[in-house]
Every structure is written in structure tokens, then in C-alpha cells.
Amino acid sequence: MREFLVLITFNLLIGYLESELLNMEKNLIIHNSKFLISSSLCNAKTQCISKCLKNSNCGFVIYKDKSCDLFTKLAWLYRTPSTNDIIHKRILFSKNLKYYWPIENLSLEEIITQANFINKEKWSFTEDRFNSSNSAIELNGNHLVLEPRIYFNDDFTVMVWAKVNELILESSLFGCLNGLGEGVHINFLGGKGKAYYAIYSKGSAMFLDLVTDLKVGVWYHFIISLENRKIAYFYLNGKLEKIGQGFYTSGVNRTSCFFGGHSTRAVLDDMKMFNKALSITEIQNEMKN
Ligand SMILES: *[C@@H]1O[C@H](CO)[C@@H](O)[C@H](O)[C@H]1NC(C)=O
Ligand SMILES: *[C@@H]1O[C@H](CO)[C@@H](O)[C@H](O)[C@H]1NC(C)=O
Ligand SMILES: *[C@@H]1O[C@H](CO)[C@@H](O)[C@H](O)[C@H]1NC(C)=O
């Protein structure tokens, strides 16, 4: 009986933990070395995060003074508030996250599979939405082009934090296409005066316009997704703005994928791609991070 209860408690705890862990917490530290997986030196936080991603037991990372500590998920039980001003970050990645460009401290690196940008012109590092320097990218009439890959297959979610410096007609936030008209697009401003999400497939096109009018100089969290190969969702700041009938996005080698565009003047940050349509709860947890 006692074992049975312990088991139940443990399972409840895991369920609770998994939803709790999605929130990034600041001003916390983990002192319990029982849950420490490894401790090593890293020159950059992205390197440290990458280490965690390669270790399936890793639930948390604390990066401080070049020291990179990886902790298991249960370490959360031993968190304590830290009294100093340094922020201790815990980061948990969903297994459905396939690509992530955190953009931090002069690094543009994609930290999961090194899907890196192949052009680097007319952009610079700038402050992110937390005012951290060199932790977002400012595009001045250019796009950052990704190496050709199979970025989507069936369902997906793409999310980007972005702030427009100028609302220019048909300026792109994100696009991922092949040479045969199979593509997904987010533009900041379309003919109807709104940002829109488009899917192109086999000569057909689907467009979902935002309801909200974008303002210059304001950070927004853009999310597009496709569920069950056919339902397209467009979210802004964690709220669903539009839903519609999309098109199946096949796993083609996408040779033209980019953030920004030739006429884009905007700041972008924290780009992520998932291999499924995230639920509203998952999206709202992402918003908080
Ligand atoms: C930023 O990166 C440089 C090396 O590229 C490192 O020396 C510095 O400590 C890092 N700063 C922060 C705040 O992580
Ligand atoms: C960032 O700086 C601007 C201008 O100094 C300020 O208005 C804003 O509140 C700051 N934001 C944060 C998150 O600290
Ligand atoms: C995609 O296409 C590029 C360029 O044509 C090629 O270098 C790359 O190997 C292809 N990738 C895959 C996964 O097929």
C-alpha cells in the first residue's frame, strides 16, 4: 500500500513538474548537487544550452561566470530564491522543438542541429525585448537566409518575436519555400493592411490575415502553425487571431528559407520551429519565456 501511494505521488509530481517546468524562472538557484549531471566550463551560454540538449536527462541549465551546470528535471524540487542580482536561468526544451535561434550575446547560432544562416549582410545585433544588448537582430533591408534543409514535414509551429521599425508593404518576417511553389510565409503588411500568414501548395494559396493592426516599435510574438495537415492557426502574443483551412506541407527540401526580407526593417529574436502544432497552453507557456 505504501509503495502504491509513493508511486501515485511520484506520478502526480511528474505531471505537475512537466507543466511547471515550461516557465523560465529568474532569480532562482539550485544548490542540491544530487541532481547535478555535470559541471564544466563554456565560453558562451549557447554552448552550455547545446550541451543540455544533447543530454536527454538534462532539465535545467545554470550558466554563470562561464561555468555550465546541467541538472536533471527533479532538481526543480530543490530550487531556492537567490538573493543576489544575477539571474539564474533554467531552460527546458520541448522534445518537439527542432530548431532554435536564441540570439544572445553576439551569437546567431541555431543550437539544436546547427542550421545556420548562410548570408550575413545589412544586419546588426541590437537590444532584445528585455533590453539585453547584442541579443536580437536588426534587419535593414535584408533577410537572413538559412541553409537548405527539410524544415517542415506535415504539422509544424513557427514562432518569432519581432518589432517592426517601418511597416513596408509585403515586407517578410519569415519564409520557407522550395523552388516548386511549396511554401510558408509570414509578411508584416499585406494588401488588406494587415500582417498575414500564407501557405502555398501545388498552385493553390491560403491566406490568414491578423485581426490586430501592428504598431511600429512594439514587440510582438508571432506564431503560425498547421495541425492535422490542414488546419492553419495564426496567433499574436499568445492569442489566436485567425484559424482557417490550410494545405498539407510536405517534407520537401526547402532551398529558400529566411527570416526577414529584401525590404524588411525590423528587429527579430528567439526564433523557433516545432514539429507539431502547439496547443494554446504550450503557446502561452512559450509566451512567458
Ligand atoms: C558574451 O560572450 C563573450 C565571448 O564571446 C564572453 O566573454 C562574455 O562573458 C559573454 N557575456 C555574457 C553576459 O554572457
Ligand atoms: C527598455 O528600455 C526602454 C527605454 O529605456 C524602457 O522604456 C523599457 O521599459 C525597458 N524595458 C525593459 C523590459 O526593461
Ligand atoms: C537540400 O538541397 C541542398 C542544395 O540543393 C543540398 O545541398 C542538401 O544536401 C539537400 N538536403 C537534403 C536533406 O536533401
UniProtKB/TrEMBL annotation:
Pfam families: Laminin_G_3 (PF13385). The keyword Magnesium does not apply. Keywords: Signal. InterPro entries: ConA-like_dom_sf (IPR013320). Residues 1-19 form the signal peptide. This is Apple domain-containing protein. It comes from Brachionus calyciflorus. The lineage of its organism: Eukaryota, Metazoa, Spiralia, Gnathifera, Rotifera.
